[in-house]
Amino acid sequence: MKYDVVVVGAGIAGPIVARNVAKSGYSVLLIDKKPAIGTPKQCAEGISIKVFEKYDIPYDKRFINREIYGAKLYSPSGYELELRYKEASGVILERKVFDKMLAYYAAKAGADVLARTEALDVIRKDGRIAGIKAKHEDETVEIHADVIVAADGVESTIARKAGINTYAPPHEFDSSYEYEMLIEGYDPDLIHLWFGNEVAPRGYVWVFPKDEDRANVGIGINSDNPQTAKYYLDKWLKENNIPAKKILEVNVGVVPVGGFVKELVKDNILVVGDAARQVNPMHGGGMAEAMEAGTIASKWIVKALEEEDLALLRNYTTEWWETDGERLQKVLKVRKVTEKLSDEDLDLFIQILSGADAEKIAGGDYGEVIKALLKHPKVILSPRRIKLLRELL
After folding, report:
1. What else is on record for this protein (predicted)?
2. Which of the listed residues 73, 74, 200, 382 has the most CB atoms within 10 Å of its CB?
């Protein structure tokens, strides 16, 4: 088989690249090792409503469980910070349908799509990578392509085989554990997040409503923690008298929260999405980041093919680092500071921050917020808090 572009991985970034490049008239193959694209999910399934228009994705009720109007944050001692909007600010997806539909949009744009096709290695010819070896329906196939996109997740086989350095230490990953379960008593118009060093070290517990009485209930903690994510989630459920007897699904995953890949391109190989660690280090969400990276990557793939100059692919690395990469580096600084916060600090900041402040901090646009916090009496009286906040400026 011969294509202009082969994209390995049909999560979020891969289908965006495949669709955009196919729309420009180039031959594209999108492959995924799973028999059913989108299954199993490894996601809390929440995403900003803005992505649909920004990345030209239909607002399709088939993959939208419900609209969300904000969030509620809970401190270790039970203080609450609520962000509530008059209009929907986000949605809870059904990832099993959403991912498959993204692949469908790529196919409609002209890309070929093959599920149950696992990339095994790269093909080298005359000192360069000329394609990939894969297994499709238990048969080994060779797929030749001018450009190869590694969108195959955290453990990216193709990036590793191509010699791209994707190493990050264990501390730059979170372990997550999630139940889709019946649960009552939480406003289904909001997502709910609980913080605390005894609740979820370095992370948080979440309840993302899918129905009035059904939600994704999960946790993320630092992966080098001596205890498991499941231990902390079950502990939280027990302490809050939430019966875990109506569990519809269990999902386990590893989430990169740092260690961004420096060189996103090597010769004719590009790495995108989780494979490139393009995830928000603060909340661990990566869908919007994958869409952005996929959009930038596909732009430079098309230009490189149009001008028959694969050296142009390197502009993907430059543009991503000057835009979303720079923003995520700022968010990473926040994550590293929050790791040093005591439960008393978390109580204080949830009491004195506004919803808009919290949103800015999570997005990396926090300069003015930090300057304001440094003037607060309870911060001024603590040299340790002053030192921590100044690390962000």
Report:
1. Reduction reaction proceeds via syn addition of hydrogen for double bonds.
2. 200
| pLDDT value for 392 | 84
**95 in a known ligand binding site:** yes
- The answer to whether the annotation marks 363 as part of a ligand binding site is yes
- 309 a known binding residue? no
Residues of the chain above pLDDT 90, percent: 88
Question: Average pLDDT for residues 298-312, to the nearest whole number?
Answer: 98
Residue 200 among known ligand-binding residues = no
- Please, are residues 197 and 77 in contact by the beta-carbon 8 Å criterion? no
Q: How confident is the model over 71-81, as pLDDT tens digits?
A: 999 999 999 99
Q: Is 274 annotated as a binding residue?
A: yes
Residue 355, annotated as binding a ligand: no
pLDDT at residue number 379: 86
Query: What is the DSSP secondary structure assignment for residue 381, as one 8-state letter?
Result: T
- Say if residue 26 is in the same domain as residue 129: yes
Domain carrying residue 364: 353-391
What DSSP assignment string belongs to 302-364?
Answer: HHHHHTT-GGGGHHHHHHHHHTHHHHHHHHHHHHHHHTT--HHHHHHHHHH--HHHHHHHHHT
Q: What is the pLDDT of residues 248-281, one digit of tens each?
A: 999 999 999 999 999 999 999 999 999 999 999 9
Is 290 annotated as ligand-binding?
A: no
**Is 11 labeled as ligand-binding?**
no
**Do the Cβ atoms of 297 and 269 come closer than 8 Å?**
no
Q: Tell me whether residue 121 is exposed, middle or buried, using C-beta atoms within 10 angstroms of its C-beta: 0 to 12, 13 to 18, 19 or more.
A: middle
Phi, psi of 12, deg, nearest 5: -110, -55
Q: Are residues 195 and 284 in the same domain?
A: no
Q: 44 among the known binding-site residues?
A: yes
Q: What residue type is 157 in one-letter code?
A: T
Residue 195 lies in a domain: yes
Q: Could you tell me if 133 and 178 lie in one domain?
A: no
338, part of any domain: no
For the chain, the domain total comes to: 3
43 annotated to a ligand binding site: yes
Separation between Cα atoms, residue 10 and residue 152, nearest integer Å:
8
At 236, is the pLDDT very low, low, confident or very high (cuts 50, 70, 90)? very high
